[in-house]
Specification:
A nine-stranded mixed β-sheet has the order 3-6-7-2-8-1-9-10-11, sandwiched between helices. The chain is of the alpha/beta class. The model has no long low-confidence stretch (mean pLDDT 92). It is 33% helix and 28% strand. Helix 1 packs across helix 10 and helix 4 runs parallel beside helix 5.
Length: 285
């Protein structure tokens, strides 16, 4: 069972929900793995720690152009959909910008002069941290300057294997990293806040997931601020409201200290345990 915790924008509280849900399952002795898929800025490790048991680099092939052979025909530049090959034919200048390369190999296929070979370039690192008794935290972290974290996210999720329960702390937004994460989840928990900005981002996420035909529900964080538009939208779209987390100085202070509210308060431990119960497959149908 794979559950993605996502949000339309950063700072909405998805890591708060993901880490507290992880702790609640841990306390219930349900084997669980949490994968930090927010590879550009992973922060699950601030709340959950374990023993580093595995670490490996994720690489992709990038082109290497032999300028002594290159005829400057420009085919590789034209074939590249990501503008990763800089070419000025009048000056006979051609360069590969590795940070923009997606490793698709189109330039390699396009070259008729055998001027392009390939080398491995590091995109980032996947680390596995084991806690006691089948509890695991996996972190994907991209190298600074890397354009796309999608391949790294795939590797991090693959490292989780077929563990019984896997939580994905999704990247924010609705671009490729989010889609890659949600695509591999059985259910997506969207975290939002009851404000106009929250509603705008929520709508984008909902529309994207609807196109993917992905089951979803919503957790409203900082409940009590803003207005009722988010709730009206959920009713209109018949999207289940899974949980409300009130706007609270105590909760914010606990989070800012790198602590889990479910570990500090039995009531919250029970609420996150109940949240998991609502995510069991029979409740999706």
């Amino acid at each position: 069972m794979k559950i993605a915790i996502a949000s339309g924008k950063g700072g909405t509280g998805k890591t708060f929900v993901a880490t507290n849900l992880f702790y609640a399952l841990q306390q219930a002795k349900i084997p669980v793995t949490i994968v930090d898929c927010d590879a550009e800025e992973p922060n699950v490790h601030l709340f959950i720690s374990g023993c580093l048991t595995k670490s490996f680099d994720v690489t992709q092939k990038v082109p290497v152009i032999n300028e002594s052979i290159c005829t400057h025909c420009g085919r590789c530049h034209k074939y590249c959909s990501y503008n990763a090959i800089f070419h000025v034919p009048t000056l006979q200048v051609i360069k590969v910008m590795e940070d923009l390369c997606h490793g698709c190999g189109a330039c390699f296929v396009a070259c008729n002069d055998s001027a392009i070979t390939e080398k491995q370039s590091v995109l980032g690192t996947v680390k596995r941290f084991d806690l006691a008794n089948q509890f695991t935290m996996i972190e994907g972290r991209t190298k600074i300057g890397v354009y796309s974290s999608v391949k790294l996210i795939k590797a991090a999720i693959a490292e989780a294997g077929s563990d019984s329960v896997v939580l994905f702390d999704s990247p924010p937004g609705t671009s490729c990293p989010f889609i890659q994460t949600a695509h591999l989840a059985d259910f997506v928990v969207l975290v939002t806040e009851p404000t106009p900005f929250g509603l705008s981002d929520l709508k984008q996420s909902v529309e994207t997931l609807a196109d993917m035909n992905k089951p979803m529900g919503v957790v409203v964080n900082r409940a009590g601020i803003g207005n009722s538009d988010v709730y009206n939208y959920l009713k209109e779209k018949k999207i289940p409201l899974l949980m409300e987390i009130p706007f609270s100085r105590e909760i914010a202070l606990t989070y800012s200290k790198g602590l889990l509210i479910s570990a500090m308060d039995e009531v919250w431990l029970g609420k996150f345990r109940q949240l998991f119960d609502t995510l069991t497959p029979h409740s999706w149908k």
